[in-house]
Write a structure and sequence with these properties.
By secondary structure, the protein is of the alpha+beta class. It has a single domain (about 5-70, about 110-235), classed as Alpha-Beta Plaits (2-Layer Sandwich). About 15% of the residues lie in helices and about 30% in strands. It contains four helices and ten strands, in the order ββααββββββαβαβ.
Length: about 240
Amino acid sequence: MSKIKLDKKYIIKGYITAESGLHIGGTDAGLSIGSADSTVIKHPISGKPYIPGSTLKGKMRSLTELARGEISEVRMGAVQNGACQDPNSLSAKLFGTANTKDKEAQRPSRVIVRDAYLSDEGNDQFKDNPYTEIKTEVVIDRITSKAMPRQLERVPAGARFDMNIVLNVFTENGASNDMIKDVFGALELVQDDYIGGSGTRGSGEVKFTITSVTERLATYYSDNNKDSEREAIEDFETNFPNLF
């Protein structure tokens, strides 16, 4: 396996706005009579809904693989078409791979996606209202035409979450490829798709707004050199107007 060394980090910050109701499933343990059939995930202390980093990162990865035809055909447990295991694929280079059969093919993840919590700003609608809504959906029996209603808990459209993504840039055998444009491309794919459940029925549309892109060289950490940091948002906002 080639030698890998940290070159720099990009810290990408901004916010995620729910353009439609957002349903990211939580635990249904302890449901009371009359509550929603499917609840959203909430912070165990504050009780506020949030977007897990694993949800956003998994969607970024799966759409990247789908767009580039990199979906693995190898069965991974119960999943027939899972994460790509080819170490030379963009998916593996960006998001890593834990190939248990070939240790030489293992790659660390370059992308870190933090949990996205409700922003302190831009959520004035929640001051006097609950954090979620209940959407009733109806399944129709195709033979008897019997209606079977179900209730789905969602975060209402307009909710804003803080976004924090870190991209580690490595030098591999002396060569460096920051791949940050591939991260922005993955975000654009998600923006034109959905996150969470019931996406094909209207839920999960989101809008990303990036407010800062900070570049920090490795010397920022190793030598305590604070001059190794710069704001790099102008390097990318022209090429990705849908994100800035």
